[in-house]
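Here's what a typical entry looks like (tRNA (guanine-N(1)-)-methyltransferase):
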Amino acid sequence: MKFHLITLFEETCDAYLNASIVGRARKEKKIKVDYQNPRDFVNNKWGKVDERPYGGGPGMVMTALSVVRAVEKAFGRKGLQKSVLGLRKSKHGRVVIWFSPSGKQFTNKDADALTKYDDVVLVCGRYEGIDERAKKILKTLAPIKEFAVGEAVYTGGEIPALAIVDAVTRRLPGVLGKDASVEERRIASSAVYTRPETILYKGKNYSVPKVLQTGHHANIDAWRKEK
């Protein structure tokens, strides 16, 4: 499975995507992560990818064609031809992820759905956003899913993109070792404990709940459901 990040800040993404479980998945070639920088697809000598917004307002807006060309590069010419001709079923093809505070909240169900794609392109906006014409053009090349990741507004799309790569990767076969390690596919609780049974801190004992020490799986599952 390939993730393609359209971003001005590859180094900030790669630091996270090279670490821990996602980094191991990359090393074991369970996923591949590529980057395309919109600055590489502009015709000015400064690598300028932003302009003032029509109608006024604060800040700058990322230009449409710099983003579109970066996505085209991620797809590859051969891939674009296949997409346009309809030679690949969407469930095994490619999809573009567009981030917006007004988009659908990203869920575990969405993460499961994205595992069916071969190529997931994540467009990381900056400044005051991306010229809306980029989204209109990209819709002619591939399906677009528009998501919000959490209710906060971020400086750029990199943090939501990393969250999606992480959430999708951990669902791929073999990434976590066993399917039961995906918490939302089993009875899980936000409250977890490990040895020792009792911790002494400033004269007070903090103990593991008795039910977890019984080995009675039905009672443990009931406790987890309650939590």
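The two ends are 35 Å apart (CA to CA).

More examples are in the samples folder.
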